[in-house]
Write a structure and sequence with these properties.
The complex is a heterodimer of chains A (324) and B (528). Chain A is mostly helical. In chain A, 76% of the residues lie in helices and 2% in strands. Classes of the chains: A mainly alpha (324), B alpha+beta (528).
């Protein structure tokens, strides 16, 4: 068990360094940060001076090594654009993204899993057909379109939900939460639905197909032959056995919810990490971009680790194999 | 004083005021722009939007009025005591938001801070040697050379409080290389009509009225609080305006103008921006970098430049791409800039047949190929304009391949002159034609700036540009400016296209003034 965890952590480190290398080599293609750092009429000498003082004239490998050196001391630098510490900017923005992602993931699970079970158990009912057709919309429509449509209907036409922002937030220490105010909760509705829709349909279809698969298995037949109730068969046997792949996918999706919140956050002007990243790209704010990418890589790595450990508890076969 | 007593104290004051005068009502003005203010520190970035924002909090010695004319602000009067020395009499009794008095020491300090490393005020303070205190309310500003437009130059330069900066460790602006944060980045202390209440970068900035503002003549606004939110997505900006969550937003996307006007809840206020959009052409190389013509530079031939000019139907760009909102231009400068000459603002007619003939005459009867570089997130419909140009010149036999990129990539390429043809927009920070001439019409080999991406030059303009920079007599200066503008026009050194529209979506019931440099002054806002 311990060696398993340690080897995963070691792998994670290699992944992180790989990600930062890729991220760093991308930055040479995003354009010149200086042109966003000074006004249009600032003299060329001043620009050159600034470039020199920021170390942008160094060859890319040197810049990369310097960057790794600073990051290993948890020094993420100062945002070119905001002129503040990147770490404090991220700390400000993180709660917004995590709250949005959490609510979305919860929505996706709470609706996706039961819907998947229902459509698997009642394959031919018209409700199932309706749900399946509706889920096609969730899979095929791009996020920004769903967001804009929701805004158009609920903010512009009916005017019951805000079209942008997070509403009033309450500061609990370093954490700003929108859960405690009415406007904060209202502001959460549309972005979280937009973000959850894809995952919801994905989970629903996954649960459904896994469940159908399992229901055909021999041990289900034996369970029925033993005269167990439908309820026991469906939820005690079938559902438990569909959960392993669902956990994997859900876990990985949680990472992508956080990462792909970018589009949703841009549409709803949700002040989270995704919006910060988009703003940073526009302004070629390299310290912010690199820290964001590292953080997202870190999320993915941690989530993968947790998912692997969860397997351990859900699937007894893994434990037996390790025990041998 | 505890919070509670403070609250009741405020309540009591509010009660007294409302009892004494007309009931005081909080009028909140909520607006959005596509980006955020760079910093609360007015010296951090010389960029239009940030500079315009700071005008509501900080004040300069002289300022622009709603029509971009200079008027007194923190200085009440000024005179030239010799060609390089300007004496300013300061306004007395002005207080900063923290209660400190404004005086000559603050002016001296501000100019020092504006020239410090980390400040991006070079285009305003670069020509100034120093500010010198004469007495408590008199300051001399010493310029390196006689400067006819000093007032324009310092109008976007705001006065900070020496004592406040010293007390909070903000004597110097943030220097990125040193990696330390600065108090002034998130806090402010100006003399202007509004003071900062809260600041969340990239999220929300709230300002409240400064009831002690000295400018009693400009007190006919009723806004008491301003909430500014940056909203990057144009569709969301429009939706937020239509749903009543915003009182004003800009820029309103030109494709949404009709919809906003038809909504009944908001209208789009449009006016010409002082920025001119034009095409530049490489005239400094012997062979173009991006063309199929080898061994020579076709753009050095005036006939080719004229052919491109006359192959472009600027009227069609106006009606199709800009939906009727642009103003076709014959010069590289807008009518609002001082030094503009209306008699020169006519355009060569659109004439594709003539263009073809000119090309044949220049030795390209079968046409030629050139790459056109274009930003895609800088100006109103910039990429679409380039697409239209590409399609139009194709009819005359010129095959332009379009490379549209984000501004950070585009500007990088332009400043290296790694470019053959490009689209650019330009205005003057000091609202004066002189700086446009210096930036765009003097080639780098004559000491010009990198912004002249095609290296256009004319010996006479170079000579004139130097003289314009130091000619004090307005009449003589105007004659020089007009001469330079005529030369570049006759040379077809650039192909001017249009002034793009300012487009502000304003909720019904809100009145405000739209300044040609896209600045929003809160002290002109009234909400019913």
């Amino acid at each position: 068990m311990l060696s398993f965890v340690l080897s995963r952590i070691l792998q994670s480190f290699i992944v992180m360094i790989g990600v930062s290398l890729v991220a760093f080599s991308l930055f040479t293609y995003v354009g010149d940060p200086i042109s966003n750092l000074v006004g249009i009429q600032t003299s060329d000498e001043k620009r050159e001076q600034l470039r020199e003082s920021l170390g942008l004239n160094e060859p890319a490998p040197v810049q990369f090594v310097n960057f790794l050196g600073r990051v290993s001391q948890f020094d993420f630098g100062i945002s070119y654009q905001q002129k503040r510490k990147v770490s404090s900017i991220i700390a400000e923005r993180l709660p917004a993204t995590l709250e949005l992602s959490f609510v979305s993931a919860l929505l996706a699970l709470l609706i996706g899993v039961p819907a998947g079970i229902y459509t698997a158990l009642n394959r031919d009912s018209w409700v199932s057909h309706l749900m399946l057709s509706a889920s096609l919309i969730g899979v095929s429509l791009p996020t920004f379109l769903i967001g804009i449509m929701l805004i158009f209907v609920f903010a512009v036409q009916i005017q019951i939900l805000p079209s942008f922002g997070r509403g009033e937030v309450v500061q609990l220490g370093f954490w700003s939460t929108g859960f405690l105010t009415a406007s904060g909760l209202k502001a959460l509705i549309m972005p979280s639905i937009t973000l959850a829709l894809f995952q919801m349909t994905l989970i629903m279809r996954l649960v459904r197909s896994e469940m159908l698969e399992v229901l055909r298995a021999d041990y289900i037949k034996f369970a029925r032959a033993r005269g167990l109730s439908d309820r026991m068969v469906h939820f005690g046997y079938a559902l438990m056995n569909t959960l392993v792949p669902v956990i994997t996918i859900t876990g990985l999706q949680l990472g992508s919810i956080i990462a792909f919140a970018i589009i949703t956050e841009t549409v709803f002007q949700w002040p989270g990490l995704g919006l910060m990243f988009i703003q940073a790209i526009n302004e070629v704010d390299i310290p912010v971009m690199s820290t964001y990418l590292l953080l997202i890589a870190c999320f993915f790595v941690i989530i993968n680790l947790v998912v692997d450990l969860l397997y351990y508890f859900v699937d007894p076969r893994l434990r037996i194999k390790q025990g041998q | 004083m505890t919070k509670k007593t403070k609250f009741f104290g405020a309540l009591a004051i509010a009660f007294c005021v409302s009892a004494a005068a007309t009931p005081l009502q909080a009028k909140v003005f909520r607006y959005a722009f596509q980006g955020d203010v760079a910093s609360m520190d007015p010296y951090a970035l010389a960029e239009n939007f940030s500079s315009a924002f700071h005008q509501n909090v900080y004040e300069p010695l002289v300022r622009y009025d709603a029509n971009l004319k200079i008027e007194p602000s923190l200085a009440v009067s000024w005179e030239n005591i010799n060609p390089t020395t300007w004496r300013f009499k300061l306004r007395q009794g002005v207080k900063y938001h923290n209660g400190n008095a404004f005086n000559a020491d603050d002016v001296v300090f501000s100019f020092k801070r504006g020239k410090a490393e980390g400040a991006d005020m070079g285009s305003f303070t670069g020509g100034i040697v120093e500010a010198r205190k004469v007495d408590e309310y008199t300051v001399d500003i010493i310029t390196k050379a006689p400067n006819p437009i000093l007032l324009n130059t310092i109008a976007p330069f705001y006065m900070m409080d020496k004592e406040w900066a010293e007390a909070n460790g903000a004597v110097q602006p943030v220097n990125l290389a040193k990696k330390v944060e600065n108090f002034a980045t998130l806090n402010s202390n100006g003399t202007g009509p509004f003071k900062l209440k809260s600041r969340e970068p990239g999220v929300k900035t709230v300002l409240t009225i400064n009831n002690d503002w000295w400018d009693k003549a400009n007190q006919n606004f009723n806004v008491t609080e301003v909430v500014f939110t940056p909203i990057g997505s144009a569709a969301t900006r429009t939706a937020a305006l239509l749903s009543g969550e915003l009182d004003m937003m800009f820029p309103a996307p030109v494709q949404d103008v009709k919809r906003i006007n038809a909504s009944g809840v908001a209208t789009v206020l449009q006016g010409p921006e002082v920025r001119t959009i034009f095409l530049g052409m490489d005239q400094e190389r012997d062979e173009l970098l991006y063309s199929n013509v080898k061994g020579k530079n076709p753009l050095r031939d005036k006939r080719v430049r004229q052919a491109i000019y006359q192959a472009i139907d600027v009227g069609a760009i106006k009606s199709k791409v800009m939906r009727g909102t642009s103003i076709p231009a014959g010069l590289l400068v807008a009518p609002e800039l001082s030094g503009f000459d209306a008699s020169l603002n006519d355009r060569l007619p659109y004439d594709p047949a003539k263009a073809k003939a000119l090309l044949a005459e220049a030795g390209y009867p079968d046409g030629l190929e050139i790459q056109l570089d274009c930003p895609n997130n800088r100006y109103v419909n910039d990429e679409q304009i380039c697409q239209a140009v590409t399609a139009m010149v194709a009819k005359a036999g010129i095959k332009m391949t379009l490379l549209a990129q984000p501004k950070s990539k585009f500007f990088q390429k332009l400043k290296k002159h790694d470019i053959s043809m490009y689209l650019l927009g330009w205005t003057a920070d000091d609202q004066d034609v002189g700086s446009v001439i210096a930036h765009l019409m003097v080639p780098p080999k004559d000491g010009g700036l990198a912004w002249n991406g095609g290296g256009y030059g004319n010996a006479r303009i170079t000579e004139l540009s130097g003289m314009i920079g130091s000619e004090i007599d307005p009449k003589k200066r105007q004659a020089m400016i007009s001469e330079a503008l005529k030369i570049v026009k006759d040379d077809i050194g650039y192909i001017p296209l249009h002034q793009q529209p300012l487009s502000w979506g304003v909720r019904k019931g809100v009145t405000l003034k739209q300044r040609g440099d896209n600045a929003l002054n809160y002290w002109y806002i009234n909400i019913n």
